[in-house]
Batch of 2 targets.
Target 1
Amino acid sequence: MVHRTMAYKITKKNVNDAINLEKRFDGRGLFDQRPVEIEFGVSNKAEGSVRVRMGKTEVLCGIKMATAEPYTDHEAEGTMMTSVELLPLASPDFEYGAPSIQSVETARIIDRGIRESGFVDFEKLCIKEGEKVWSVFIDLAVINDDGNLIDAGALAAILALMTAKFPVYDEKADKIEFGEFTDKKLPLDKSKLPLTVSFFKSGEKVFIDPTREEEATTKGRLTFEISKPEKDEMINAMQKGGEVTFTTDEIETMIAEATKIFKKLKTLVDESLDKAEKENKKKKD
Amino acid sequence: MAEKGSYTKRIDGRSFDALRPISAKVGVVPNADGSAMFSQGDTIAIAAVYGPKTLHPKNQQNPEKGVLRVHYNMLSFSVGERIRPGVSRRSQEISQVTEWALTPVVMLEELPGTVIDIHINIIQANAGTRCAGINAAAMALAHAGIPMKEMVSAVAIGKMDQTIVSDVTKEEEDYKEGEAATDIPMAYLSNSKKISLLQLDGRIQAKRLIEALDAGKKACQKIYEIQKKVLKESE
């Protein structure tokens, strides 16, 4: 898998043992998340931006918008592109150069969950059919990698989307006044909000939200991207990563946990958006 | 098997759990140490294995075990609108998940310091290309005499509206009615009963997912029998 620093080879056995005893180094249970901190508006030129911290993992997400020609097979739909930058400042394992497979895979998983859930209404991003549509860029930058980048990135992406606003746009001149914003939010269907949880396997135990040290001891993961449009949860995307195998029984156990974690994440998202809205109102008043 | 829903009959007339006609052959690339062709309906994949050979540059060598490298590529003319030749984000991801699907069965600890290169090319595409690629690659590894714990078989399971089907076609992938199409490519190790590739996009309830995985296992077992038969006959 990903190259990890030598130190983790030495501690690997201890970390593994701790997980197998269900006593993690930081005292968490197998399905406990680290504390999550959310801060909106971290970059004022972006159409939407957020900082997400999961323990010591820190990810920034900025939404940028542009106009473009639609794809020929979707002439009345806007487009979306997700990218992940694993910045060398975030970890001794990240290097400059062409995007690594980890970066490409992470971006594609996050993109798939958002796209397949139906959260973004692409038809409402159409400006003129066959000619001009809005492109939404979800750009993620990892500031500190302490594990679980897929989940942290996916959370940052949906929060940034939910707080993004269209920039001022002159349709005749096809010119965007970057840095000037309208009050119009992106066309999102909040009932289809996709949330992401990845399970990691160490020995025979499955757990969530690994630190970088824990992640280095695992052989693989299974990511679920879930939405709840009606009474039942829907799995919108899945991805197995790493040289690990799973039995159907293990997958059933993970789905049951994933449903519980979905609820917790949903509460977290709702609370953070409420809080941000209240703070915004205060500023205006 | 058919649940209530709009997809009551498959577009190509197959029963819901039927695979498309399969054809497989080994030794299709004489220069390679092992090779195989695997086709499922209109989808045709060829795979060639080179190695084990010494890994260069040396600093990439692993003194504990060998390295498996998978390169998945769709030929530019294999689909409707031409694909720009070369590596794409999609092909990089598929190469990576294919590598992860095959690694668990290859006894890499027997081959320290070496690399095994697997080159998969899709000649003609009608959905399920990563699965056909895995089926071909697993056979090519066996054909090359690489020490393996068992075979790997792969299939794409789909849910069209409410109906679970095996070995999805492109037309089915584009199904739009009801809950539309969900695509679940999976790879299965028939002997140890483990899943080594699992991806999904679409919308499916938890209960139905388990049902889909069971359909996948059955389909993979059928594929496994064909892989075994072809490999035995080639000896």
Note: Chain B touches chain A at residues 89-90, 92-93, 96-97, 100, 103-104, 184, 189, 192-206, 209-210, 213-214, 217 (CB under 8 Å).
Target 2
Amino acid sequence: MSFEKFIFYIFSLVLIFAATMVITRRNPVHAVLFLVLAFFNAAGLWMLLEAEFLALVLVLVYVGAVMVLFLFVVMMLDVDVAEMRAGFMKNLPVGLLIGAAMIIELLMVVGPKYFGLDKFAAPVKHAADFSNTEALGMLLYTDYLYPFEIAAVILLVAIIAAISLTLRRRPDRKYIDISKQLAAKKADRLRVVKMESEK
Amino acid sequence: MEFDNSQLMTMLPEIVMLTGALLVLLVDLMVRDSDRMWPYALTLGTLLAAFAAAVSVGGGSSEIILGGNYVRDAMGDSLKGALLLIAIPLFIYAREGLRKMDEWRTEYLTLGLFSILGMMIMISANGFIALYLGLELLTLSLYALVAYCRDSSKGAEAAMKYFVLGALASGLLLYGISMIYGATGKIDFPGIMQQIAADNTGDNTIFVFGMVFVVIGIAFKFGAVPFHMWMPDVYQGSSTPVTLLIGSLPKIAAVAIALRVLAGAMESLHQDWYMMLVILAILSMALGNIVAIAQQNIKRMLAYSTISHVGFIFLGILSGTDEGYRAAMFYAVVYALMAVGAFGILIALDRKGVVVDQLHQLKGLNDRHPWLALTMLLIMFSMAGVPPTVGFWAKLFVLEAVVSIDMWWLAVIAVFFSIIGAFYYIRVVKFMYFDKPIDDEPVVVGGAAQTMLAVNGLAVLLFGLFPVLVFGLMKL
């Protein structure tokens, strides 16, 4: 076994272990932390594929940003584990059936029969100074310019959607509008009441 | 790849739409008026300009540009044109409805325009990447719109359901796409078609495996049985102006992607996919038409009616002939026209503080507003497939396509279920014309919406008398 293969198996085994732990842990915080471990190992696998940029982005974006957000959400929500598991036994047979069907289908197609080295030659190894990021950038801004632009529009829509769903003007807020204050006149605030003078 | 600026002219409709949507966003910031006339006028202007652009760059032989991601061809031209034209009455009705609900904000216009842009991208996608991104643009805008009325807990629940099931469908679709990409090494439709045709091993298990997931993904977006669970809840949960958008135009885009993927990229696998569509079509027609009978809520009833119409659209696609594909396109366009009209009438009947969504609220409509009742009558007859309305021709053309490939039994099943379906459409007519009104409040409709509804109803009749006006434009 070459060293590379050895590394591959280590990353893969830890990845599978971590993924199993994610869905079996009772404590949601532990599950999130195992997911972080799974992401790190996936990044390691991408490194082996020479996809350095993607590997780094996975760590930076998913581990650095998304998972931290996840932890926040888990902390904020009051997750009742017992309640979540209430329907577990009832739905188990259906779940097992669908899961088994999926696994059998997967075993039928994923393997050397259809994806073997004779069908797809192994990619050529690049020299150490080959810039993966540059190659990705070239592809993204030429051949895939159109999808790239659409992705930008999708992000814009996400911003609009998030703001329009969360921004509300509360009537009871203590907000000071300076121009309104300056525009206030004496007549707006002051009322002179004529009264009979007391004797 | 050489980048050529002159290529950009080909995608002028999309460029106009994007620019228009961004302008609406900016104008809303600059111009402060409570009635939002400027963004509204700009929205309608954008739709007209995009339609004009689509007409001016349309026609002629098909062109594939931008690295094989974008295709402009006769099918795209006709569907895009129909989409943009039907979008105009849609926004007019939506304004009417949102103003009655005191929810008239520019976000509806912006998100609506972006969702239409997403549909246009789907229609002219020439590869799985553009197709998927267009789909996401469409559905992301729709998720936000379903939750548009922020104080409605039903809307939030519907949005959540739609989002979770939509994400699941996207996952299945992506899984299928990844399998096909893995098997063929190509991501663009012509490339995949060549690879599948060139495959001489005689074993197409892997293509079929990927295709199953892609078909499920598409069926989810169409709302075909058994992937229809989200439709009734989302139709009912969102406010009528939003249901108007969800329930009409996306079907045109869905037909486009089904034809691009199944009839284009996987043409040589027709033997494998047509049986799946047969099952989806029969289940959709059966469940849609039968369950709709039991509904008291009109929006739920129309959701089940949509499911049955989806079954009919699949009949056209599964025939695998050019005539069948044209019939499916025609059906989707006609359906969008009818659905916009039907929801438009519900909006017209709304009042401040009163939402019309129960069947009995339509009772005696003829005494209260004869024009609206007549329009609703035309649309209901058209949905049921009664001549001389356009819905009759739509059903006839798909049945003709099924008969032409010697599937008589399927045509008989379709006719059987559409007769069952006629019951609940005609019940609406009975309520409007033969029952006493339960409230005597006058119906207040804005001038623009009222005129547009009349035009919409008459269009259903006119295209029924001269179906070639629309069918002649449906080219492949």
Note: The CA atoms of residues 210 and 369 of chain B lie 53 Å apart.
